[in-house]
Q: What sequence folds into this?
């Protein structure tokens, strides 16, 4: 009967299987050599011929260097398979005739380590598993992963060493290329001025580049593995940041968003973010990559410019009202007196004087309108309430739409420029409702129950038919959002309970007094 080998295919063998196969071969080899027939000589009383032949064929074809050497015999009691020539350029005879050739060909940078590891194997009997470099005949450097084991006789004396060495040069080159690419990417990330933050799906920090370290004052080693919410996000923004994070995990990317970070020293920095996600092979989320720009100074400069612009605008409005308006009122009074005198004398010039009076009165009206546009909110704490009440009246009068202002308790705004921004947000929201919502009723509310909050709510066609819901809100929505950010507030557009749309603008309580 033909003997069927149970050995796996060569390409399926791993180092452990190869080592076990080598052990069986070595036992056959040593049994035959111990009888005095020399290495590789088969003796009928030691092993079945077909078994030895199968093992020898397997070992000589396996794509690895297989070796064995007896520890109580001479140099002749050693074996190395033909792959030694394929991989290093030395024939088996050349390799075996020089007992120290293997050590001589080890790369100088690895000799000390190899000697220590080999000594430990001989002294302790522990298997040797190591990677090191060997110099081929033509000077090439070949990387080997070696698995070797010392076998002892039943009485404990060392018997022989057997092992297998796999050429891992291509793997090492791939690892080196990957490492170079990783180092290059790391150098880029650590050089750019932008903050680069990599999070896992649970919001834990995976990567924290140098710009993040400089901005926050934390070293990357202090933050890796920790939740981003617990470290930097300003307390009042944590809920909003979590909401944005959930949107990002779901693949819904806001075009751009900002958050306030707190540094180690307690300072606050405004960061403008953009985001992307990195998915695995199965499409599951692996990492969120956030790229941020510190816009704190730009925001401060922008706020300063707008405050200066606002002050100048209010000054011009005040000058128009108190200066030019009063001057024109005086001219109108004198013109009216002149008209009366001319009329009393029956002179025809009285008609021309009456025209002058009308023109001056028109100029006074236009000056007042221009002054109100430039100075919609009076420079006192109740100014916003008065301005919103006037806005509601004008909307109802001009557009024949029910519009009311609601304020259960006084909301007194300390800074006029903040009140002015809030007024313009309300004005824009009302205009959008009239233009897109076709409402029957509009309500403008100021409320302190849940923190300072201004709400503009309508009963129109609803969010699904509004440009804001389709991402096409235009310049008006952008300006409202910008104004809210300029006063440290938030802007939110959501469906109203009435079926229409509600625009909610929250602003810091520090701007309210005596409420």
A:
């Amino acid at each position: 009967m033909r003997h069927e080998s149970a050995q796996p295919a060569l390409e399926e063998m791993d180092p452990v299987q190869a080592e076990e196969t080598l052990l069986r071969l070595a036992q056959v080899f040593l049994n035959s050599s111990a009888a005095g027939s020399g290495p590789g000589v088969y003796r009928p009383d030691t092993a079945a011929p077909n078994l030895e032949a199968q093992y020898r064929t397997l070992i000589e074809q396996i794509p690895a260097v297989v070796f064995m050497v007896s520890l109580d015999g001479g140099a002749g009691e050693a074996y190395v398979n033909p792959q030694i020539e394929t991989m290093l350029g030395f024939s088996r005879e050349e390799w075996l005739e020089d007992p120290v050739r293997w050590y001589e060909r080890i790369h100088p940078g690895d000799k000390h380590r190899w000697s220590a590891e080999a000594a430990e194997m001989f002294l302790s009997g522990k298997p040797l598993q190591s990677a090191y470099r060997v110099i081929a005949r033509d000077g090439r450097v070949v990387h080997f992963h070696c698995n070797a084991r010392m076998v002892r006789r039943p009485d404990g004396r060392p018997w022989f060493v057997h092992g297998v060495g796999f050429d891992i040069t291509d793997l090492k080159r791939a690892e080196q290329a990957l490492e170079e690419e990783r180092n290059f990417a790391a150098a880029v990330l650590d050089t750019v001025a932008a903050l680069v933050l990599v999070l896992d799906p649970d919001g834990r920090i995976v990567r924290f580049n140098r710009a993040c370290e400089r901005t926050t004052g934390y070293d990357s080693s202090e933050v890796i593995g920790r939740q981003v919410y617990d470290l930097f996000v300003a307390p009042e923004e944590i809920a909003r940041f979590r909401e944005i994070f959930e949107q990002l995990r779901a693949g819904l990317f806001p075009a751009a968003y900002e958050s306030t970070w707190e540094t180690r020293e307690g300072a606050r920095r405004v960061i403008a973010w953009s985001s992307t996600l990195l998915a695995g092979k199965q499409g599951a989320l692996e990492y969120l990559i956030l790229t941020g720009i510190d816009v704190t100074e730009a925001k401060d400069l922008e706020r300063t410019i707008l405050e200066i612009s606002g002050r100048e605008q209010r000054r011009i409005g005040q000058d128009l009202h108190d200066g030019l308006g009063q001057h024109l009122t005086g001219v109108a009074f004198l013109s009216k007196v002149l008209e009366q005198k001319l009329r009393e004398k029956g002179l025809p010039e009285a008609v021309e004087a009456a025209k002058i009076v009308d023109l001056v009165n028109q100029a006074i009206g236009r000056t007042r309108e221009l002054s109100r546009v430039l100075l919609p909110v009076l420079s006192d704490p109740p100014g916003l309430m008065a301005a919103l009440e006037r806005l509601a009246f004008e909307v109802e009068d001009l557009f024949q739409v029910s519009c009311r202002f609601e304020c259960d308790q006084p909301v007194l705004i300390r800074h006029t420029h903040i009140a002015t921004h809030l007024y313009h947000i309300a004005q824009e929201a009302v205009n959008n409702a009239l233009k897109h919502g076709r409402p029957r009723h509009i309500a403008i509310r100021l409320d302190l129950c849940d923190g300072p909050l201004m709400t503009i709510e309508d009963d129109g066609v609803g969010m699904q038919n509004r440009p804001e819901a389709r991402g096409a809100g235009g310049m008006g929505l952008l300006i409202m959002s910008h104004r809210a950010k300029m006063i440290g507030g938030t802007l939110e557009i959501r469906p109203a309970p009435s079926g229409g749309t509600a625009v909610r603008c929250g602003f810091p309580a520090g701007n309210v007094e005596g409420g």
Summary: The two ends are 104 Å apart (CA to CA). Residues 1-13, 32-47 have pLDDT under 50 and may be disordered. The domain at 10-168 is CATH 3.30.450.20 (Beta-Lactamase).
